[in-house]
Amino acid sequence: MQGWALSRGTPPPTPKPWGHYIHVTDSDAEVGRHVLPETRELLVRSAADSVTTPRTWMKMPAEPDDIAPWMPPGWVVAYEETGHLMAVDVRTTHPVVPDGYTVEVERTDAVVFVRLRDADGGKAAAGQMALLGETVVVDRVVTDSAHRRRGLGQFVMRTLADEAVAAGARQGVLGATAPGHALYETLGWKKHATLAECVYRP
Fold first, then answer.
1. What is the pTM of this model?
2. Which residues on neighbouring strands pair with residue 132, listed in sequence order?
3. Locate the N-acetyltransferase domain: which residues (predicted)?
4. Whole domain around residue 144: which residue ranges?
5. Strands 135-143 and 171-176
6. How many domains does the chain have?
């Protein structure tokens, strides 16, 4: 959660009895999120009962169907947002830039950005990561629809891994979507938990 907040430029997570709360500043769909590292009914209900602001989210390691019965009125399990907590021991692979593209690598404080641009200068793919000592948190890896199935996502991930090793990191962590999960598995990432999400929509 610290890495996610650092990557997104949000205020630092605020400790709560059930985990942490992150105030989100860059999304119309979300005003904040509660992150629960441990999923127990009492903790989930306590976090949910503390919320009065619509578009507040909760995320926790659990199967969506397991937490659905615990949700009080106004809360919706976002099955379509179900994610996968994944990790890998990062290593260098020195990827080659795909033909027809150029790569930009930029570091701002503790966040590294990788961008692939096409021949016209348009952004074809991108990704970023937050540096937390020996761990990096990978975030916002995306390929433009017109440039998919060309290995650009793999190139971005491998470039981020190279940058992570250069910064002294040993482990990478991310929360993958369903489509991203398949890509990361091909790169050696291992799933450690399902991430259930729910949102307050009274």
1. 0.91
2. 135
3. 72-202
4. 91-169
5. parallel
6. 2
